[in-house]
Specification:
With 259 residues, the chain is α+β, with helices and mostly antiparallel strands. It contains seven helices and twelve strands. 32% of the residues lie in helices and 23% in strands.
C-alpha cells in the first residue's frame, strides 16, 4: 500500500513554472539641465513576458517639460511606446528648475498595471549640482528583477526623425511644450495653434495632441467641460499623426469609427 501511494504521488503532473513578471529598470535620480535634452534611461524586461502593445505611462512630469517620444494624455502624464525607449529624452525649457517624483507604470492595452517604479527628476543650473545627483541604476519594481531586454539599446543611437532635421525637431518640441502649458491654463484655442505648428514641422506628438483636443472619446475621459468635440477634425489630425509615425493614432481612429 505504501509503494502504491508513492507511485501515485510521483505520477502527478508537475506544475508549470510561473511566467516571469515584467520589471522596469531606471536610475533612482535623473539630473537634467535647462535648455537641454536629457536621455531617460528606462528599460523593460523580459521581452518574452510582455503582452502585445504594452506601453509606459509616466506621471508627475513638470508641466513645461516635454518628452521626445510618445504623447501627453493629461497635464504631466505621458504615454510612451516601448519601441521608443532607446531614444527617449526629456526636453527641458529655459528657466525650469526643481525636483519632481516621476512614477513609471507599465500598462497593458486594456489599462492593467503590470509593473511600476519611480525616479526623481532633478532640474538644476549647471553650477548648482544637487548633492547625490549621480544616478546609480536602481528600481522599485512590483516584481523580481529581470535582465532588461526592451529599451536597452544604447542611448547614443540616433533618434527617430519625426521632423525634417534636428533644428526643426527642437523648434517643434518647443511649440509642443508651449501648447501643453497653454492647455494647462485652459487656453485651448492658443494651445491648438502651437500643436498645429509642431505638427507642421513633422512632430507626431503635435498632431496627436491636436487630434486629442477634438476627440469626443478622449474629452469624455478627461471630463472636459465646455469644449466642443469635432470628430472630423480629430480624424484628420490622427491621420496626420499616423503618417508621422504615431503608433497610437490607429487605435484612436478605430475608436472614432465605432461611434
Amino acid at each position: 500500500m505504501l509503494l502504491a501511494g508513492l507511485a501515485a504521488v510521483t505520477l502527478l503532473p508537475a506544475r508549470p513554472l510561473a511566467q516571469q513578471r515584467p520589471v522596469i529598470t531606471t536610475p533612482a535620480r535623473i539630473l537634467a539641465l535647462p535648455s537641454a535634452r536629457t536621455p531617460l534611461t528606462i528599460a523593460v524586461g523580459p521581452e518574452d513576458g510582455l503582452p502585445r502593445n504594452a506601453y509606459l505611462r509616466l506621471r508627475g512630469l513638470p508641466q513645461a517639460v516635454a518628452l521626445s517620444e510618445g504623447h501627453a494624455i493629461a497635464p504631466g502624464v505621458w504615454a510612451v511606446p516601448l519601441s521608443a525607449l532607446p531614444v527617449l529624452a526629456a526636453v527641458v525649457p529655459t528657466g525650469a528648475q526643481g525636483t519632481s517624483e516621476i512614477i513609471i507604470d507599465l500598462l497593458s492595452l486594456d489599462g492593467k498595471v503590470l509593473a511600476q517604479t519611480k525616479t526623481t527628476l532633478v532640474i538644476t543650473a549647471v553650477n548648482q549640482p544637487p548633492r547625490g545627483a549621480a544616478s546609480a541604476p536602481s528600481s522599485t519594481p512590483v516584481s523580481p528583477p529581470a535582465s532588461p531586454q526592451v529599451g536597452s539599446a544604447a542611448l547614443a543611437s540616433p533618434p527617430r526623425a519625426d521632423a525634417a532635421n534636428r533644428g526643426d525637431r527642437e523648434r517643434a518640441l518647443s511649440f509642443y511644450s508651449k501648447g501643453l502649458e497653454l492647455l494647462e491654463r485652459g487656453d485651448i484655442d492658443a494651445a491648438r495653434k502651437f500643436f498645429e505648428r509642431a505638427a507642421d514641422l513633422g512632430l507626431s506628438q503635435g498632431a496627436m495632441a491636436l487630434a486629442t483636443s477634438y476627440d469626443p472619446n478622449e474629452l469624455a475621459k478627461l471630463k472636459v467641460v465646455g469644449l466642443q468635440a469635432n470628430a472630423a477634425a480629430a480624424r484628420t489630425w490622427y491621420n496626420r499623426a499616423a503618417e508621422l509615425g504615431a503608433a497610437e493614432a490607429g487605435e484612436r481612429l478605430r475608436r472614432l469609427g465605432a461611434r
